[in-house]
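Quick one: structure tokens for this chain, please?
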Amino acid sequence: MPFHETEIQQLVSDIWSTMLGMDTQPCDQLDWLNRDEWIGQVKIHGARELTVTLSGSDQMVRLATAAMFDVNGDAATSDLLRDTWGELTNMVAGAFKSLLPGNCFLGLPSVTDFGVDAPSASNYRILTEVGFHCGEEQLRVTIIDRRSTIRTPANDLADLVAQ
């Protein structure tokens, strides 16, 4: 089983249930890769150098905003949608951080929408990626190890240029 997958499933379920009154179900396949999405990220520093990302469809973020702030999700402003996803990302990252040994500290959450300037994990190792269904919508939590780089031709070229 991937790095802390069971614990991530439980903490997401607890956060969605407690904060939003919504149920989540883990899923193996996500079919939304071509849909609009929001991506939140929080970096964890210290004994581990990780990034926790929370990705969700636009409709998932709107439903979460409606539940969290008791507003019409379809009429919510972009700032309110971003605040909601940032808060949820921070909660997931904070709960995940509590599972880690040693001293770790959370960075501030950042949120991008619709894949614009999405955080890249292309040079880092993905430790875990867990998908969820929440009603008809989907979300995903990804844990990225920033200390473990993947060797790519671009890395090799950068190393050669630096010499």
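The first strand starts at residue 25 and ends at 27.
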